[in-house]
Write a structure and sequence with these properties.
This protein is of the alpha+beta class. Helix content is 42%, strand content 23%.
Length: 397
């Protein structure tokens, strides 16, 4: 499951639950997670911030109980070691049964919102597994130097699967009867790339949930954020100068500027630890770096992560030994806005004068482009060396 699913940060809304005078509803939550070892369980509510509601211990059968009150249906998470289970509290007696390997594939009674959300997650996670399988094929073809036609065909399957998943999220958000479930699902989309859709979704939610303060606040926040996205960046293209920027390095302190690499060929690489296509592409990027790093070439990695530890772990795991920066703001990164990013992975090949000479180079295309750039340079160096050697021989004679 992606980090977007594990670590949802709801930048689209900052809602407050109903007024103080509203009556609170009592709930009892019974959960059994087969295979879960005994240990602590945290109950957290997702709102303008993540709020710890209560904690307990599961028994040897993976069973535990929470009781409490709520003002209106809301989105909650059970946090257990490195596992999470997302659900909706919208009833007085909620019973959840799941397994430790995939907690979100649960069955539930007493909560229509949780039943809807669980069904959505089963479909989404199934598609995610299909996508990762396709990405493994892409990786295999790249490592074995498969034919370009085969690689392009599989990459097209990858793009189609991503589009299919995005449409699935939209269709669910447009039809579910659970407002908290809408909040969960919509965060799997890139807001900057889907502003028009979010505006349409917000209007629809006001009609579908006319008495919901949550829906009203969500719609207001969408419009506020949409206004902030209006300047979509410089949209740099081939032939234009690469906009300069500075972001913190891995230590979080030193500011590193793109312009500090002027005089070199630079692959400006946008990625994130939570992005499966990015991680699948990394072996090709590593191979390119190892092949050309001694020929006035380097890579400047810009991460759209929000979790510093996940970012650093991915750098180490994927063996990305070049310079990395991030402001840890996800899609709200100043560099992502400056370069008008709509999706990742994305990259820009910049020449020693700071001019963009190619964009969105992936797999075999990255290797072909770099070979075309550096082959003439290598050839010229060989000719110069040969001429120098001939000249020295002439002098000796």
């Amino acid at each position: 499951m992606t980090d977007r699913l594990h670590l949802l940060v709801f930048f689209l809304f900052a809602f407050l639950f109903a007024s103080c005078g509203q009556e609170k509803n009592k709930f009892i939550l019974n959960v059994q997670i087969d295979g879960k070892p005994p240990g602590s369980v945290l109950l957290e509510e997702f709102g303008s911030q993540i709020v710890l509601i209560d904690s307990t211990q599961s028994d040897k059968n993976g069973a535990f109980v929470f009781t409490g009150t709520y003002k209106e249906p809301g989105l909650y998470r059970l946090r257990m070691d490195d596992q999470n289970l997302f659900f909706v509290i919208d009833g007085s007696q909620i019973d959840i049964r799941s397994n430790w390997e995939e907690p979100n594939l649960y069955t539930v009674t007493g909560s229509a919102g949780s039943a809807s959300l669980s069904s959505f997650l089963k479909g989404y996670m199934g598609s995610l597994k299909d996508l990762m399988a396709i990405q493994q094929v892409v990786d295999s073809l790249q490592n074995t130097q498969g034919t370009d036609s085969m690689l392009m065909m599989v990459q097209l399957d990858e793009e189609n699967k991503v589009a299919e998943m995005q449409n699935y999220v939209k269709a669910y958000s447009d039809t579910t009867n659970s407002m908290p479930a809408v909040l969960f699902a919509s965060q799997l989309l890139n807001f900057n790339n889907e502003v028009s859709y979010f505006l349409s979704l917000a209007d629809g939610l006001l009609r579908r949930f006319p008495d919901s303060k949550m829906a009203a606040d969500f719609a207001a926040k969408v419009k506020e954020n949409a206004a902030g996205v209006t300047p979509v960046g410089l949209n740099p293209t081939v032939g234009s100068q690469a906009p300069d920027f500075s972001l913190p390095g891995i230590d979080g302190k030193e500011m590193i500027a793109l312009s500090s690499f002027k005089g070199k060929y630079v692959l400006l690489d946008f990625w994130a630890s939570w992005c499966p296509p990015c991680r699948a592409e990394n072996p090709a990027v590593v191979a390119a770096y190892e092949k050309y790093k001694h020929q006035n070439f380097t890579i400047f990695g810009v991460s759209l992560d929000q979790d510093a530890e996940k970012w650093k772990e991915a750098i180490a795991s994927d063996k990305l030994t070049w310079t990395h920066v991030s402001d840890l703001k996800g899609w709200q990164s100043s560099a992502a806005t400056l370069y008008a990013l709509e999706s990742i992975p994305a990259n820009f090949l910049i020449d020693p004068n700071g001019k963009i000479i190619a964009t969105d180079l992936r797999g075999a295309e990255l290797e072909r482009t770099l070979q075309a750039v550096f082959a003439p340079i290598v050839k010229a160096e060989d000719v110069a060396a040969s001429q120098e050697q001939s000249s020295q021989q002439s002098v000796q004679q």
